[in-house]
Specification:
Helix content is about 35%, strand content about 15%. The protein is of the alpha/beta class and about 210 residues long. The radius of gyration is 16 Å and the shape is globular. Helix 4 (about 120-135) packs across helix 5. It starts with 14 loop residues before the first helix and ends with a helix. It has a 6-stranded mixed sheet. A two-stranded antiparallel ribbon has the order 3-4. A hairpin with a 5-residue loop joins strand 7 and strand 8. The longest helix is centred in the middle third of the chain and has 17 residues, at about 120-135. It has helices spanning about 15-25, 60, 70-80, 120-135, 145-155, 185-190, 195-210, and strands spanning about 40, 45-50, 85, 95-100, 100-105, 140-145, 170, 180. It has a single domain, classed as Uracil-DNA Glycosylase, subunit E, CATH 3.40.470.10. It contains 7 helices and 8 strands.
């Protein structure tokens, strides 16, 4: 089993993202301003894959979905399904611990306007592939949004036409892996009603069913 591949803090594989990080580091030197590492144990059975770090969220705090609105929905949901313990407080040192769960992003660095381009998603896929290969107990992947869904399917060599994104869709892959889609828990999606707390809960009900608990 190869060792877990993670980007260095000064990673410059994607020049546009590196330049954007540099600009933010100059404006906010006390922020994380680097690739955001995954959160949770390497022995997790569930992997949640998001889009990319938020500018004032994970790019600031250094922990996925921490410090922005998306985390305000994601972490309480994980707590309610016994996939986390402690209390979420929008900071990386709040003491929150994940249970049998790990969180990462399809793109590890914050993109301008929260929109990574295709080449950046493809470049970062090597880290996602390493993540999946090193999670020996992994059984379920939750893909938050179309970009995460596409990145996960490409990692498994699945054709997008055969594995289309749909909220709450369950994709059973040949290698006994299950991928469950969800609209991203972003402020935009929740404010517009595209994603409600009930709809998000429905995703994790399916997760728990597949996990057998």
């Amino acid at each position: 089993m190869p060792s877990l591949l993670t980007p260095k803090h000064n990673c410059r594989l994607c020049p546009r993202l590196a330049d954007f990080r540099d600009a933010n580091a100059a404006a906010h030197p006390d922020w994380h301003n680097g690739p955001v590492e995954s959160f949770g144990g390497i022995d997790a059975a569930l992997l949640i894959v998001g889009l990319a770090p938020g500018l004032k969220g994970a790019n600031r705090t250094g922990r996925p979905f921490t410090g922005d609105y998306a985390g305000d929905l994601l972490y309480p949901t994980l707590l309610s399904f016994d996939l986390a313990t402690g209390q979420y407080d929008q900071r990386s040192d709040d003491g929150l611990t994940l249970i049998d769960c790990r969180i990462t992003n399809a793109v590890r660095c914050v993109p301008p306007q929260n929109k990574p381009v295709g080449a950046e998603i493809k470049t970062c896929r090597n880290f996602l592939l390493s993540e999946i290969n090193n999670l020996k107990q992994l059984r379920v992947i939750v893909a938050l949004g179309v970009v995460a869904h596409s990145a996960v399917m490409a990692t498994f060599g699945e054709k997008q036409s055969a594995r289309k994104f749909k909220h709450c869709a369950v994709h059973s892959l040949p290698n006994e892996m299950t991928v469950i889609d969800s609209y991203h828990c972003s402020r935009y999606n929740t404010n517009t009603g595209r994603l409600t707390p009930k709809m998000f809960n429905d995703v994790f009900k399916k997760v728990k069913k597949v996990m057998g608990n």
